[in-house]
Amino acid sequence: MASKTSRLGKVFGGLGVLLAAGTAVGCAAPQFTYIADSSANTYFKVPYSWHRISDVSLAAQFKTLGSTLGKNGSWDIAYDAAPAPAALHLFSPNATKPFVFAFVVPLNPAVSRTLSTNGLRDVLLPVTPGGRLAAGQGSAFPLTHFHLLRDTLLEPGQGVHGVSDTFEYTYPGDITDTFGKVALTNSDKSLLYVLMVHCKAACYSENRDQIDTIMSSFTVRSP
């Protein structure tokens, strides 16, 4: 599985992000942890009981997978609902509790000029027929049995636009994972903002309301 996971990590590619996190305060236990990349005007929330993955562990996992996330002026952060949180759950097919990560990365002008709505759909994991066909032409992409559950166009304002997708893929070993992904760009397409949450299909179904809350909380205000 390690080699297959490494191949998958390379497919996810080199994208990345920076963060400041805060929590609600009060007499009662907070319901959510509120996360913000203030420099990129990006915000979302996760249940307070979820555990943040340390920057060191996350960076080590990215390095193992051959990814450049966390480099080149980018920002990233991850939280795990598992009682024993682990950066390994980032792309693992064995995540039995939801795992979420988000990043913001600058886009070079060449990418900005050609970035389409379908391009946003295919960030990290291919969703469109063309993206899946291209990924399947090589031997490095191990996921099969794609199933699109939901596709929504997003236009939250200030020129920010993108998509929210929920879909399934099956890993080698016949393990089906469900993924929720939000991919946005700003008005001049100079920044890419992504949030993705996943776990095994049964886990995702059991936690759908909670996951939908996280995805809908992902907020970007264009600079």
How many strands appear in the DSSP assignment?
11
Indicate the structural class.
alpha+beta
Query: Spans with pLDDT under 50 lasting ≥5 residues?
Result: 10-26
| Largest sheet descriptor | 7 strands, antiparallel
Beta percentage is 35-45%
Please, how many domains? Answer: 1
Short overview:
This protein has 223 residues and is an alpha+beta fold. Helix content is 25%, strand content 36%.
Describe the 3D structure:
With 223 residues, the protein is of the alpha+beta class. Helix content is 25%, strand content 36%. The protein is built from seven helices and eleven strands. The protein has helices at residues 2-12, 55-64, 109-114, 117-121, 129-136, 201-206, 208-217, and strands at residues 20-23, 32-37, 42-47, 51-52, 75-80, 99-106, 144-157, 160-171, 175-185, 191-200, 219-220. It has a seven-stranded antiparallel beta sheet. The protein has a four-stranded antiparallel beta sheet with strand order 1-2-3-11. The radius of gyration is 16 Å and the shape is globular.
